[in-house]
Design brief:
By secondary structure, this protein is an alpha+beta fold. The protein has a domain of 111 residues: Jelly Rolls, CATH 2.60.120.10. The chain contains six helices and 13 strands. Strands 4, 6, 7, 9, 11, 12 and 13 form a seven-stranded antiparallel beta sheet that branches. A hairpin with a 4-residue loop joins strand 6 and strand 7. Helix 2 crosses helix 3. The C terminus is likely disordered. This is Cupin.
Amino acid sequence: MVSYMDYNSPSTQYTFDVNKSPLFKKDNNNYINVLGVQQLNTLENVSLLDIFLSANNFVEPHYHQNAAELVYCITGAAIVSILNPFTKQLLNYTITPGQVANVPQGWWHYEVATVDETHLLAIFDAPTPEVILGSDILKFTPANVMSHTYCIDENQWKKAVAPVKPTTYIGPPNTCNRAHDNTSQHHPRYINHYDNQRYATEAYYQQYPPHQQHYIDYS
């Protein structure tokens, strides 16, 4: 029990219909419902997202600043990709019904359905699943900052991110102008390649071995 909850109150809730709590809807086959303490006030350190995806749809790259995430596959199949910030390794885990993948708090990750009618349950150890989305980072970070920081052409950057819609959640958006090719055919590493991938190059590790990497103290 939690100290802030008055269990004698008539407003105390012990049940809720998650089907009536939409977080985001792309279409009838791709949407997310949410359950947190705002929906069910007796919840403690637990919340969830009920995720429905068709093949080749992504839950966009993001991280949860306040919680770890356990992704459970109910139906269909998905790849959960996690960037380990310590090893700089991109970890790709295929999950099918009854299997889970665990994402530590604050780690960059995303999911893609590999078949239609994929149903995932994302469980969090926090009363509300807070999130920072890749689309918001791309859209709201000033172009001159990205250009100067990464030494890229500012106009090219603006052109590249112009189609990005804030708070995408599930991509690609219905307004995507690219040819609707099968992702598994043209981007096989997303769908068919399950091996863990090095995010950094060997040259990076030669220059900055893990025990010698440089850190800047801004304090």
